[in-house]
Amino acid sequence: MDIALYPAQEPLNENAAAYHAYLIERAQGLTPLEFNYGSDPYQSLALFPAEKPDGRVLLFFHGGGWTNGYKEWMSFMAPALNAKGITFVTAGYRLAPVHTFPTGFNDCAQALDWLWSNVDAYGGDASKIFVGGHSAGGHYAAMLAVSEATAAGIPCRTRIRGCVPVSGVYYFGDNSGMAVRPRFLGPLEAGLDQSASPLHLVDHGLPPFLLTWGDNDFPHLKRQALEMKAALAEQGNIADMLELPGCNHFTASYAAGDIDGMWVNAVDVWSGRLLT
Fold it and tell me: In this structure, is residue 25 part of a structural domain?
């Protein structure tokens, strides 16, 4: 979709504007299959079939602080993952401050439901769906993997073979390290910090996780990822981690699309091992 056709978002700061420009440039020439899973323009996804698919599917959500971003941001990841036989899908969701939690998260669940029902027609296997995302998108991916949320009456986490968040957010509130409380949580009196925190929803029997961050990432996100790994392992879940050398919060996202790069190779090997 032409980004100009989306409803207006809040102005981007300098770092986010540079991130946006880089990703849009890197995705030039890519032509996905476009689908809608809802009536809002943000309720859409872009599907990139692999030339030689092996059934694996990665559904990936963009970041942007829950107030900005487009599914098109993540399109640049498709060539590297397609080369591994993975069908790649990037999905959008409705944004704050117009839409507060759980609207965007429910959108992600609907995108997963659409994919589960339709991906077999495009070289994917609905029994081999992995989810991931960068930053705020990593938060939503983790929520799908740990919460009891349902789509079409089926728990989302039962449709997920593994979760691969990059620089994700895993909890809010006290000691989260976040300088500003994210507005997608609504007013403080709504009391949604706990229910929107994947770390606080961890129990046993969850899909495996591969948690990734950059070695120069935001310190509070590195700490949150380590705490998430510990919480998952304590409940007997598979929780692996990958630190990307030389990467900050933004370049960790760029690295997720590098042809034959560290993250792509790690996801390829890790997901393949889970399916054997």
Answer: no
* Residue 274 in this model has a pLDDT that exceeds 90: yes
Tell whether the torsion through CA atoms of 45, 17, 132 and 262 is positive or negative. positive
> Does a structural domain hold residue 224?
yes
| Residue pLDDT, tens place only, 158-173 | 999 999 999 999 999 9
| pLDDT value of position 255 | 98
Q: Report CA torsion sign: 201, 239, 47, 9.
A: positive
CA distances from residue 267 to 17, 82, 85, 199 in whole angstroms, order as listed: 28, 12, 12, 22
Q: For 86-109, how does the pLDDT look when each residue is reduced to its tens digit (9 = 90+)?
A: 999 999 999 999 999 999 999 999
Distance of CA 97 to the CA centre of its chain: 20
User: CA 34 to CA 46: how far, in whole Å?
Assistant: 5
**The overall pTM is greater than 0.85:** yes
For residue 4, the model assigns a pLDDT of: 86
CA distance 179 to 63: 17
* Residue 233 falls inside a structural domain: yes
Q: Is residue 170 part of a domain?
A: yes
Q: Centre a 10 Å sphere on the Cβ of residue 78 and count the other Cβ atoms it contains.
A: 25
Its domain, for residue 96, covers 33-274
pLDDT at 196: 98
User: How many other β-carbons are positioned within 10 Å of the β-carbon of residue 198?
Assistant: 28
What pLDDT score was predicted for residue 276?
87
**CATH code, 156:** 3.40.50.1820
Number of structural domains the chain divides into:
1
Burial annotation 225-264 (CB, 10 A radius, 16+ → b, else e): beebbebbeeeebebbebbbeebbbbbbbbbbbbeeebbb
- Please list, in sequence order, all residues whose beta carbon lies within 8 angstroms of the beta carbon of residue 270, skipping any fewer than 6 positions away: 162, 164, 210, 240
